[in-house]
């Protein structure tokens, strides 16, 4: 009996002629994707055009997101740095607080709106967190910041060097006179100037040099040169009475000229040039 069983088993296996294979299980989906309701990802890559599209779109989106995130981080950092300034106390209720002076000027070949947007986006949140007051000096054309800085320094010098001289009655002078009359003390300490742009910084330094190293009186104006030119009359330039403008058109033009806004005051010329710096002497009240 023991010898018959081994011989029977190979015969039975040889008679069938096929081997048994276990059924292959179906590919299981990623459980994370299944919980999110997403189908199985395709096994082949997308086409070349789709790869280019998604690469460019993803790169631009990542750059924009990174820029906004870093800007928020930098703004939050400087807000935290200047936050203690908002907790500083004032000596008396009538004393003026610290006030900063912000200098803005239109970039070369552009308008002032660009500089204003830059200030609103990057600097204004930090200044608001500091609790400080500020005033603007805005230049719409080249030379405005230089003239404003130099004139401010010259007014301060006139008070010390020429106390008996009456200065021009501007809005700032009127406000300062009222404060002196009401015994309102000024802020004692460094106020601070903030300059935006390299072109503004160049004019700011030029105004400092002109104000401290230049004279208090404006330079003498040279008389206008009178030139006479002979105008040759041509038959094309001669108009007859019928070709002249109508009186109604003249009246309309006069009305438009009357309705025009007053022109911007001219920019004062510089009181000295960079060549005069080496020959100038420093005033006694210049801060060091």
From TrEMBL:
It is found in: Mitochondrion inner membrane. Residues 238-264 have a biased composition (Basic and acidic residues). Keywords: Membrane, Mitochondrion, Mitochondrion inner membrane, Protein transport, Translocation, Transmembrane, Transmembrane helix, Transport. The keyword Lipid metabolism does not apply. Signal peptide: none annotated. It comes from the Eukaryota. It is a single-pass membrane protein. One of its GO terms (biological process) is protein transport. Residues 1-35, 215-288 are annotated as: Disordered. GO terms for cellular component: mitochondrial inner membrane. InterPro entries: Mt_import_IM_translocase_Tim54. Residues 8-23 have a biased composition (Low complexity). Pfam families: Tim54 (PF11711). Belongs to the TIM54 family. This is Mitochondrial import inner membrane translocase subunit TIM54. It comes from Fusarium piperis.
């Amino acid at each position: 009996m023991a010898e018959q069983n081994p011989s029977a088993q190979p015969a039975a296996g040889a008679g069938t002629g096929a081997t048994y294979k276990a059924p292959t299980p179906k590919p299981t989906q990623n459980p994370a994707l299944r919980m999110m309701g997403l189908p199985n990802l395709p096994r082949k890559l997308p086409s070349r055009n789709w790869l280019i599209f998604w690469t460019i779109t993803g790169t631009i989106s990542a750059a924009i997101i990174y820029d906004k995130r870093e800007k928020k981080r930098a703004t939050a950092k400087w807000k935290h740095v200047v936050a203690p300034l908002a907790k500083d106390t004032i000596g008396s209720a009538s004393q003026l607080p610290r006030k900063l002076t912000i200098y803005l000027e239109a970039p070369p070949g552009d308008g002032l709106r660009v500089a204003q947007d830059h200030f609103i986006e990057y600097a204004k949140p930090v200044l608001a967190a500091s609790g400080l007051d500020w005033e603007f000096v805005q230049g719409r054309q080249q030379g405005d910041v230089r003239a404003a800085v130099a004139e401010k320094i010259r007014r301060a010098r006139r008070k010390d060097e020429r106390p008996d001289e009456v200065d021009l009655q501007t809005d700032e002078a009127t406000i300062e006179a009222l404060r002196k009359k009401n015994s309102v003390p000024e802020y004692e300490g460094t106020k601070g100037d903030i300059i935006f742009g390299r072109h503004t910084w160049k004019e700011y330094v030029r105004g400092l040099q002109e104000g401290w190293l230049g004279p208090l009186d404006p330079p003498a104006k040279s008389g206008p040169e009178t030139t006479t030119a002979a105008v040759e009359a041509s038959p094309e330039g001669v108009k007859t009475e019928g070709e002249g403008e109508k009186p109604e058109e003249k009246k309309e033009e006069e009305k438009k000229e009357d309705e025009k806004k007053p022109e911007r005051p001219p920019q004062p010329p510089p009181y000295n040039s960079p060549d005069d710096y080496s020959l100038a002497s420093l005033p006694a009240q210049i801060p060091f």
